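Tutorial sheet, problem 5. The two components below are modelled jointly, 896 residues in total.
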Amino acid sequence: MSSHFSVHPREGGDPVLWAISGAERALPVNPDAAVLAKTWVPTFAGMHGFIVALVLAALTLSGPALAQEPAAPPDRPLASPGQEARAQAIFEVVRCVVCQHEAIADSPAGIAGDMRRLIREEIATGASDQAVKDDLVRRYGDYVLFTPPVRTGTWLLWFGPALLALIGGLALFVFARRKAVETALLSPEEERRLADLLQRETVRPDPDASAPHDGR
Amino acid sequence: MAARGRRIDDTACAEPSPVIVEFGAFALILALMLSVLQTGLAATGRWRRSPLLAGGAEGAAMGAALATALAFGALIFAFATSDFSVANVANNSHTDKPMLYKVAAAWGSHEGSLVLWCLVMTGFGAALTRARGLPFGLKASAVGVQGGLGALFLAFAVFTSNPFARIDPAPFQGMSLNPLLQDPALAIHPPLLYAGYVGFSVTFSLAVAALIEGKAFSGFWPAWGRWVRPWALASWVFLTAGITLGAFWAYYELGWGGWWFWDPVENASFMPWLAGTALLHSAVVTERRGALAGWTVFLALLAFTFSMLGAFLVRSGVLTSVHAFAVDPERGLMLLGILGFTAGSAFALFAWRAPQLKGGGLFAPVSREGALVLNNLFLTVAAVTVLLGTLYPLILEAATGATISVGPPYFALTFTPLMAVAFLILPAGPLLAWKRGDLKGAMQRLALAAALAIACGFVGWLAFEPKKAFAAAGLAVGAWLILGALAEVVERVRLFRAPLAEVGRRARGLPLGAWGMTLAHAGLGLFVLGAVVETGFKVEAAAPLPIGGEVHAGRWVVTLDKVEIVEGPNYLAERGTLTVASTDGRAVPSTVTAERRFFPAGGQTTTEVGLDFRGLDDVYVVMGERRSTPEAAQAWTVRVYYNPWARLIFLGPFVMALGGVLSLFDRRLRLAVGGKRRAA
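Model answer (structure tokens):
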């Protein structure tokens, strides 16, 4: 488990080969399981798909049909329901580091299973949620959490929307105030002329302004 | 490979035809030339005020649409006949595939989908020439801009992504389409989505044309709002349907029980939708009151810019995703060039002309206009939030090398509260009068709806276990949207306040647009209800099951009855048959099948989810790998999700799209788009 393990889908070019090597680098997993897991990840790269197909064919089609696949160890839920619920909540926000945009809760990849096991182990030993996440970040980098960290570089990301809403709201407020001034009450002279005109019915009342429901 | 030995000659249709393929390549180039001609003629026609030249531009637009359609037809033919001398076919098709997916593979690759994109663009361009009532200058300019857009994308197709490129020697067999994409929903998802994305090119063209023409005459902006609305509405309907279908596909095909994960590519389709929704609303203000003209023009430009940004993100390789096409930096650079050129020049024109746009009618802050402005504020901030969440990791990594992930928790903290506030305000908007609204009156008319919505939230809080305050609040918001939309109709037809005959007369008198709005807002409420309940109360369980074993999820118990090996047209599958019964025995047990499919051609494995529809709920069953457990020699990992009210998540947006369709048939909008259906 190298400390500089910062995976990214663009790093190694082809997702299939990259994923396999990534999985092997990351954790001591069964390489066959990693290969199988990657068959879930769709790829348009025909040649590598072909290689994976050969591997798979050797693995799965040795018998007359789908034969025994060497699978990753199954998930074993924690005995305590409370702890298991905490683990599940963490699975939802931790990224499967070899997948495209998947949480380890949803990923069938072998490494996701390993990460789930790791998190369960830590929770079982009494680590807090934050400690578990910190440990994941130490191992895999910020990339592993779907919640980006709040620091100088991400202020715009976190506070940009609120800032924009604030600026927009303020602009609307100022705009409305200015409009209100512009459309201030008529001068006495204008009032008198308007009343005069209305009296003579040369000005029709604005139909739009009257009913709340104008039928359009 | 096992598949190699299988029947190759079972293609029921015609032999590959080199002539048709060459003809398709020719037609695509012809379409490019016609689009260039369209722009040239429209520009000269506009400049010289020559109806003859402008008419020629319209003819060229028709021709370009026809030529692109022929090219697309030729491409489909090449796929249908499995002509592997065409590189695109060899890379994305296979003789074993069912015919539907052979045809659908025509838009399953980068090259093919680009032709579809161009087809929608030139098709909308041809429809634009049939739009009635547009003044000469505006129409000529819009046709010219539309032709320019078509030419750029056709040139991109012809010069960097030729879908008809040959390979020699032709391979014996194709590499097949990604099996995840071999699904009926996904066969029609891209055409719908593209109709939405590219439909906004017409609003873009009309906006640029309006900026070029300036304020041509008094009353220009209300008229322009009327011209632009049907196009925006039609695109919005397509996009809504396309995104919903995509989410539904992700839900039942990817097998992880979710339907939206804020994947960058999902976001890429969501940004134009948000901008388009804002555009729909602000165009109403421009049409009715002549106000917000500059802002509506801005949104019209923004919607298509987001569409192009989405195309860039998906096709350039900056993102990796289920949806991303093969990585090619050169194509990405060229797309970025197209995006930069079109959006850059359009927004530069906007910056130059916008200060000259005179504001229309005045309005008080509390008014229909004010409510729609607020709607636009929320939707725009929401679109920017999605934009930030999508691009920030890319920009941060390019700038500092730091890698971060932006996923659901980020959007739950930024996007969701924003929308929640917007939804609280929404029902009041339609009850406010134009110019100056009566907020107190609107509140009084909504009081009953509000009380009922709060009651719904409280009932939900009692009914659902475990108790969640947030979910109860969400339920109240969803109910509020539906009841608020109903309250508005009740108000307009004077239900409970006037004699029934009067109510009936009023209901018949309501324009279709009003019903469309009510339906769309109620559909949003349905979606909110579904999303809140599904997210808050879904239950997930997984266990290795031997034959006869069972797993519990919520109030459901799922039993694995049998597992058999089945052979599909181009795959082998382990098919599990499972019984879904309720633990209390009250619901009728039913049987579902779930499969794990292996496609030898591409070497991929996919899951076919077993879905047991239980009213609004789903019991969602996924077959996993075979493994041995200490208890049994043979067991299969079965994952079960109980997704309460999941049906509403897809029904809601469908109702919204239906509301859009209803509005499209509104008499006032139909006038502006009279010739459209004839041409399209």
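Marking note: Chain A touches chain B through 79 residues (CB under 8 Å). Full credit if you identified this.
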